[in-house]
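Task: encode each sequence below as structure tokens.

Item 1
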Amino acid sequence: MKAKYVNLFTDFGFKKIFGEEASKPMLLDFLNNLLPETHIVELSFKDKEKLGKTEADRKAIYDIYCQNDKGERIIIELQKAKQNYFKDRTVYYSTFPIQEQAEMGDWNYELKAVYCIGILDFTFDDKLKITENEVIHTVQLKDQNNQLFYNKLKFVYLEMPHFVKTEQELATRLDKWLYFIKHLEDFQNIPEIFEDSIFIKAFETAEIAKFGQAELESYEYSLKIFRDNKAVYEYAVDTAFDEGKLEGKNEGKLEIAKAMKFKGISGSDISEITGLSKNEIESL
């Protein structure tokens, strides 16, 4: 059956639901339930491309970057496939909204909080989970006694494959948002649990039949990239595993890169997923 609503794990779908001016009510509701301590009243979108201090410095491009009414910065990243050093990347990304708060002249170094949110369509390999199938991981700076040392830098990772609740098991509004994010493309009608103004607006925004021609073409291209990347990555990982080349070792990464390159996926996307350098990819 043809999908009625967008796949929220595509770049287009994610930004359509959460990253446009008209989408602010949905984003605000989602963030207030994910980060209840922030009590956000208003949001403003900020420039998603952050440059280093010189032209030679590496830049960062966020999926969504916004600021709340208290001046706190929030970065949201949708990550569709495993990436080497993904946690390192999120830490690196957090440095830009910290540095941009520096003031000229006599500044006392007081900072507004920075929140980095990763919505992951995969699970971490390492043993982060305290309980089986834990979905939300919150990470903050703590001291040797496990006491919170600094409360203005927080990382939140959502492992969406671990969210397995059924519609009948949804207990909180955050549960509803996670269910919406994971299953949006599968819905043909709006379930009764979503019949309030915010969710109805989200469904209306996500309805493919309401897109103009330009939006439809953009979505179809984004969906193709998503499906190609996912299929090639899963095939390559399975192949590498079957041949005894465990993911994380160079041989396995090369097998993945070869399959992706054959499929016509860009070198930058291959590098992002595998961690291989531009020269390594070009030599394949």
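Item 2
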Amino acid sequence: MAEYTMSPERWAHTQTYLRELFAREDEHQRSLMPRAIAAGIPAIDVGPEAGRFLQMLALMLRAKLIIEVGTLAGSSAIWLARGLMPGGRVITVDLSETHLDFAKQEIAAANLTDRVQFRQGKGGEVLPVLLRELGPAKADMVFLDAERSEYIPLLPTVAKLLRPGGVLAIDNALAAQRWVADPYKPGEPRDVMDETNRAVAGHPDFIASHINPLGNGTLIAVRKD
């Protein structure tokens, strides 16, 4: 059996191969981030590979309600909205009015206005409000891609929002301030995403795993019955 060493060159070719086959973007998606950067929005998005995966998750869940924390330019909301069942909606949350205004324009340009609703505020403030409005076990999926220090405090609310079999997805699960799997120096505190990974992996309400390579890693957890 042949042995394959994953050199940097081979890895770059592999990423190109996978993106061309499994993460094609339409013209609107390809041009979204350049417009966002020109508008002064940080050059951050989930990327087409993770975006396609999120769309597939929504389809597999037959999702009618997805809650996203971290709208930014609206890229991931578009991927998620395209995976919804008819009549479904994405509720996307962001603290920045600038981000939300830009995302509204992009989502309208993608003909998805009827599928996406916007809430301004921190996830830790907005999700408890949504829980009161919607009731427990109503969300098919929650996607976190915002302020990482909020993730662990949000877990109890996320667990209540998700229906049994619903999915929690967290972007950048392997990298925040550092690559989380690298060894720590003596006395060095754990990275916030390391703490989050450990909290979800050990949470009694979830069965969790990790998908890599998708961006900087994607944490996936299924809500238990």
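Check on item 2: DSSP finds eight helices and seven strands in the chain. The chain has one domain: 22-223.
End of task.
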